[in-house]
Amino acid sequence: MTDAHRSALRHWLSDVRESRDHPHDEGVDPCGVRWQRHAEGVLELTPATASRSAEGAENDAAAQPGYRYDAILSCGIHGDETAPIEIVDGILRDIADGRLTLRERVLVVLGNPDAVRAGKRYLEYDLNRLFQGAHAKRAESPAVQRARELEVIVAQFFAGVDGVRRTRRHVDMHTAIRASLFQRFAVVPGTPQHSPSDDWFDALGAADIEATMRTEQPSVTFSYFTCARFGAQSCTLELGKVAPFGENRLENFSGIDAALRRWLSGGEFEARDDGKSPQPQRFRVAAEIVRRTDAFVLDVPADTPNFTPYPAGTVLARDGENTYTVSHPEERIVFPNPNVANGLRAGVMVVPE
């Protein structure tokens, strides 16, 4: 047995690089956490206390697992977004070394290991545009196969192990490809059936998330998939700008790192040690600018930061005879990108809630 297999958590990143031939290993880490690798880069972790009680007293009500959440923590959906990978790696290493006690059942997902190895956002197609069944509309490729695989694993994970329905939560961590007027912000999906609660926004604020953008626009992102299909409290976190491994200023993300550690160890996002309850600036999505044809033009500079404001009457996009004109007193643009494929969004317009 290799050192990586003796401690799947302590050597998580090396496991990813070495597990292609053995994607379905399982065992108990030296810290007592039970782990199961469902696929390359995907580890399901069960708290040590839950494992011991279930094995020691199957029929005892007191032996029921005490965790409250079925939690998904994902990163590396885009391979060059390294800060979230380093944050997750640090959490797993501290669990393995006994510095952090895991008390929640969690699925840890490194979304696109091939792109991580290559240091690229994606290889053939953007993985975060392939969920909610969108992969079925694309030609077969490794990205399509990965999206389908992750959807199946998530469905199995949320089905649970003991028939108990727990709160479902998914934190999908990214970094942005451009500067932002808010360095740390969250996209919070919702549907008419699964509207995000104020408590979820409060929790994100306590994690030092500076702004949130609520959207009920149907989407093909990973976080929208878990919200729409499974009713999870989901979010896509954008944490600063893309940087190579080792060049991230992780101190800028200490708030979300601390919140994740509180949560996974049995506490709550909002239970800060300093007792403060910072609130994010809340926005909602007013519209999406979609590129329809090759004639599309987005009239914003290439270096425009996320959340740049524009006043009413500003023409931001032209696509043949169609235009997008700001209609609210002020709208802010997020994720402006004129170089997307036809049919995809080239920008998101938000207004204050």
Automatic annotation (TrEMBL):
Its cofactor is Zn(2+). Its EC number is 3.5.1.96. Residues 71-262 form the Succinylglutamate desuccinylase/Aspartoacylase catalytic domain. Binds 1 zinc ion per subunit. Signal peptide: none annotated. The active site is at E238. Residues 279-352 form the AstE/AspA barrel-sandwich hybrid domain. Keywords: Arginine metabolism, Hydrolase, Metal-binding, Zinc. Pathway: Amino-acid degradation; L-arginine degradation via AST pathway; L-glutamate and succinate from L-arginine: step 5/5. Zn(2+) binds at H78, E81, H174. It catalyses: N-succinyl-L-glutamate + H2O = L-glutamate + succinate. HAMAP family: Arg_catab_AstE (MF_00767). Belongs to the AspA/AstE family. Succinylglutamate desuccinylase subfamily. Transforms N(2)-succinylglutamate into succinate and glutamate. This is Succinylglutamate desuccinylase. It comes from Pandoraea capi. The gene is astE.
